[in-house]
Amino acid sequence: MSNTVHHSVVDRENDYIHAGYGLKSWLLTVDHKRIAILYLISITIFFFVGGFFAFLLRLELMTPAGDIVSAETYNKLFTMHGVVMIFFFLIPSIPAVLGNFLVPLMIGAKDLAFPKLNLMSWYVYNIGGIFALYALVNGGVDTGWTFYTPYSSTYSLSNVVPVVIGAFILGFSSILTALNFIVTIHKMRAPGLTWFKLPLFIWASYATSIITVLATPVIAITLCLLLFERLMGVGIFDPALGGDPILFQHLFWFYSHPAVYIMIIPSMGVISEVVTCFARKRIFGYKFMAYAIMAIAIFGFLVWGHHMFISGQSVYAGFVFSALSFMVAIPSAIKVFNWTATLYKGHIEFRTPILYAFGFIGLFTIGGLTGLFLASLATDVHLTDTYFVVAHFHYIMVGGAVMGYLGGIHFWWPKMTGRMYNEAWAKFSALILFVGFNLTFFPQFVLGYLGMPRRYYIYPDEFQVLNVLSTAGATILGLGYIIPMVYLLWSLRKEKNVGTNPWGATGLEWTTQSPPITHNFEKTPVVTGEPYVYQEEEKVVE
Amino acid sequence: MSNNSDSAVGHAHHFTDMDQQREASTLGMWTFLVTEIMFFGGLFVAYALYRSMYPEAFAEASLRLNLLLGAINTGVLICSSLTMVLAVRDAQSGKVKGLVRYLIATIVLGSAFLVIKAFEYSHKIHEHLIPGSSFQFAGPFGQQAEMFFSLYFMMTGLHAIHMIIGIGVLSVLLYQAKRGRFTAEYYSPIDVAGLYWHFVDVVWIYLFPLLYLVSRH
Ligand SMILES: [Cu+2]
User: Fold this and answer.
1) Exposed/middle/buried for B213, CB within 10 Å: 0-12, 13-18, 19+?
2) Distance from CA of B42 to the nearest CA of A (A)
């Protein structure tokens, strides 16, 4: 009798979390699921660091005059906010956390192809992070996250060198993760799992990895050149020394525009999984969704010049970049229409993940459409470097990417931990986030249209009402990020009782126990059917 | 790239078989080489831009490079590619002695390249051609020639770093080969290192004409 009890206890603890104890078992792990948890901890810390800067920025902008911080500090705050949020949170967020956890599970593999490289990527990430944090305590950096030359290479007196080294190092962690995903998805799919049976999250991870592998090395060499110029005092980008600053902008945006897709495409993958699960319907137009993801990834490489319409690039180049930028709207629209069509006449269950998906679809649509204003040459001249741009990319990167990330965390939390969070609190905070987000950033569209430039420390009195609204929204938004931290951590105190498949979802990750065992599956799964076979479909067959 | 091998020749636990493991490492290396192409690509773009902006200065600055040493180095690297191929061939057919011999030859040739390169660099120091405060270049193109030498040192320096890494990797493989790690069934590390080595050679094949032969039509 006592034997049986003992046995069942051992069984319940037979998962990746209990595969080893102590700090060393985590710091030296090569299990993709544990590395995902390590990443989750690291990026959450950076998220709150970056969020804290944003809070100070919004506080300063409450009044037209400068009152809380000095102008120099303000420059450093928006720079560090951008650097931390983009390089240390958004780019690694979904790939390094959800991707690491899910890619092997979704394709029925035991691990990623190169587990040691995967662990190494986490260390590389943290080394890059240490450089950035060092620069932070040492007085910060004031170039803007774009590091435009020659200011960054010649004139800025702030900590450009450590931050640039940090961003350079960090790039290699993204490359290692992406390389691992590409090889794993190509070579390690379970028997029967052909390309067009893959979950769309895998397609999204694949497309993201391709972009990462092609674009990240370019920013790496660009930052090398910047460092070379700054440290040696020679002219590569400095026009006073015979260099060409526009070259820096070309190279920078060749990476940084595709980087936007590194942030948003994984979210699209998450949303596809969530929408089809909670609508209880097959995803509408599966193949088009897969093609659209790849099309966005490819078009994304051809539009970088839309950041340079007023920088002095040739007007003919401007025409071409403008036209190509409009083309990106086509695959993006395909995705939005297909999600909507999937929801249409679905039996929608209003659980937390789908609330985030709704948020994503709405905010991404607004962010995408306002992107078209900026892709048009004439309107862009008026809107360049105004708050309109700030609002646009926050709708994509926060309204889109972060909503997708949080939706994904909620959707797969039971799989990752074996526990369910408090649904009421989760719905409440999803709602708060949506309201807070719109209140923060919608007024900024208006501000930008009225002509308030971005990155300015003081502003005319007539803009105050909209700025106060925005700051009020940011406070609500901040609350919306803190609440999930609390109830998600709180859920870890509960019993592990969610079972294998709490959402009744399809996909191989839902066929193994929660949390999964170290090698993911007791037996290598064999795939025979189509993806996303939800009940609705069966009813139609009857 | 063999992770957690249970034994010297077995495949790692998370692969189904040796074939899958070999294919994964090969694809992994090819993907890595794509990132390398993009990495060097940024420099090539910068080079192309400034050469088209300052053609005379680049031609004149290029004359200050030592064509003979550059040509010898090109020959040395082509030979090292040959010995690398022979090493891979012997690894495939399980000839450990030949593998060891050719790995040593490749390492020696690679090191010879670096020694010659070091000589070239030291000449540049004497001639005050290192970009920065000590740079001196007579004639009207001083500033633009400095740009040429900035690119020259970035490109060849980055290439040399890749050579050093390659020699390091080959040395580890040599040590393992001597201890009988590789067989006709398990040789993918040699194969993959060979891909890398050839890539680094090919980069030089582009660097040599771009930097040394600018003014010679
Ligand atoms: Cu863009």
Assistant:
1) middle
2) 6
Per-range mean pLDDT, top range of A146-160, B3-17, B31-45: B31-45
- Side-chain half-sphere of B39: how many Cα atoms within 13 Å? 22
Q: What angle do CA A43, A78, A252 make, to 5 degrees?
A: 80
Placement of tokens 């305590």 in the chain:
A137
Q: Looking at the complex, does the CB of residue A175 fall below 8 Å from at least one CB of chain B?
A: yes
Residue A386 in 3-state DSSP?
strand
Q: How many contacts, defined by CB atoms under 8 Å, are there between A and B?
A: 117
Q: Which residue has the tokens 């020659």?
A: A150
Q: What residues of chain B lie within 8 A of the CB of A250, using their CB?
A: 45
Rounded to an integer, the average pLDDT of A3-29 is 72
Which residues fall within 8 angstroms of residue A6, CB to CB, at 6 or more apart?
none
CB contact under 8 A, B38 and A234: no
Ligand 1 centre and the CA of A260: distance in Å? Answer: 7
For residues A347 and A409, is the Cβ–Cβ distance under 8 A? no
CATH class of A27-511: mainly alpha
Phi and psi for A520 in degrees, rounded to 5?
Answer: 75, -55
First to last CA, chain B: 44
| CATH number reported for the structural domain that contains residue B182 in this entry | 1.20.120.80
B108 part of a folded domain: yes
Spans of all domains in chain A: 27-511
**Is B148 inside any structural domain?**
yes
**Token pair 């590091």 is at which residue?**
A147
Burial class of residue A532 in the structure, from the number of CB atoms within 10 Å of its CB (0-12 exposed, 13-18 middle, 19+ buried): buried
ipTM of model: 0.91
Distances (CA, A) of A392 to A370, A397, A400: 6, 9, 11
Residue B195 lies in a domain: yes
Q: How many domains does chain B have?
A: 1
pLDDT at residue A3, as a whole number: 40
pTM equals: 0.93
Per-chain mean pLDDT for chain B: 91
Q: Do residues A371 and A303 lie in contact, with contact meaning Cβ atoms separated by under 8 Å?
A: no
| Whole-angstrom distance, CA of residue B137 vs CA of residue B141 | 8
Q: Assess if residue B82 is contained within a domain.
A: yes
Q: What is the pLDDT of residues A512-538, one digit of tens each?
A: 998 999 999 999 999 988 899 886 544
Helices (H), chain B: 18-53, 55-62, 67-92, 96-126, 142-178, 188-212
**CA distance linking residue B5 with residue A26, whole number of Å:** 20
Q: What is the pLDDT of residue B72?
A: 97
Residues 6+ apart with CB under 8 A from A104: A32, A110, A111, A112, A184, A188, A520
pLDDT tens profile A179-216: 999 999 999 999 999 999 999 999 999 999 999 999 99
At A12 the pLDDT is: 55
Evaluate if residue A8 carries a pLDDT over 80. Answer: no
Which residues are within 5 Å of ligand 1 (an ion), measured at CB?
A 257
Contact present, B113 and B76 (Cβ < 8 Å):
yes
